[in-house]
Write a structure and sequence with these properties.
This protein is of the alpha/beta class. It is 31% helix and 23% strand. The protein folds into two domains: 286 residues, Rossmann fold (3-Layer(aba) Sandwich); 68 residues, Alpha-Beta Plaits, CATH 3.30.70. The longest helix has 13 residues. The relative contact order is 0.15.
Amino acid sequence: MGDKVSIVACDDYSKTREYVEKAIKLIGGLKSIIFKGDRVLLKPNVLAARKPEDAVTTHPSIVAAMCELVQEAGGIPVIGDGSGMIHPGATADAFRISGIEDVAKKHDVELINFQTAGYAEIDVPGAMHFPKLHLSKAVMDADVIISLPKMKTHELTYYTGAVKNMFGALPLRTRKEMHLLAERKLFGEAVIDLYSIAKPHLAVMDGVVGMEGNGPSHGSPVKTGVIMASYDSVSLDVIASGIMGINPVTVPTTIAALERGFGEPEPGVIGVNPEDVKINYKPSSGGILFNIPPFMTKFFGRYFEIRPKIDTSRCVLCGACAMNCSAHAIEEIDKHLVINKEKCILCYCCRELCPANAVDIEKSLLAKIITKR
């Protein structure tokens, strides 16, 4: 059945390929979801520019194994993500430092920066909070989506895994708006708005070394020794969070998913018994933003802005920024190109693609204070 979750033991990353293949075969293999010529998007967690041993990002050996397996199944793998950092070039840096860029080169696989590949606005039927979302075009262009999450704690959702891994498919502005909901329950529902239109066909979790404590980026690596797989991301999250010692029904994204009819609260398990590999991860302290009243988070969050601004003295009016702006936020006013703040989705594509280096970064006073600290 599609909600089955496989667990295989894997003590280190030296034999990743063998154990990733085993985990997928236990639930039925790739042939049931990949047909010859399919464009298969591999979506790792490339949150920030951190080395593999920091356990912030999906280990490159997991991504490499999936490239090989997809190719053997007749698919065309592509790797894509959008970093959670707010400075331009963040995703490119994260791909390079995480080792995933090298994987793409070695396997001759296209590497897609979601932020520069563009977004398209689509409807979200039955949405709880976001009836329309800008979604990465790379996600929309894929025939098959495979989520490759890292097993980690999270300051807002307690746990982050296969479902929340799709968060990288959103532009930074939308991610900020979801975070400004401030309450865990509401945030979980917003993530499921996204999941409902970008549901992976398969999830393979890197649980060889996870992250405990102040995840998803400031925690500590913890050896867990498992690789997990499921065709159902919610079911995988239920089992994975349980292995970490986190009650699945306390995870906001899991609660919201189950309430919307996704996944199973008690999925079947194939392979290693979850109790045999259970480790009680140290929980996140929650983060200062989530320990203050929601109305304060919303109020102050509005004034934290880091956005692109065109320097008209350097702009040569080539139009590259406007042609590649997914939100159509760049307008010509009095023979100058100007970014409409209301339309801008903070993808920084204009800055990345400007041949004259004429797009600067403008920070609000609050952003200057916080980033300086």
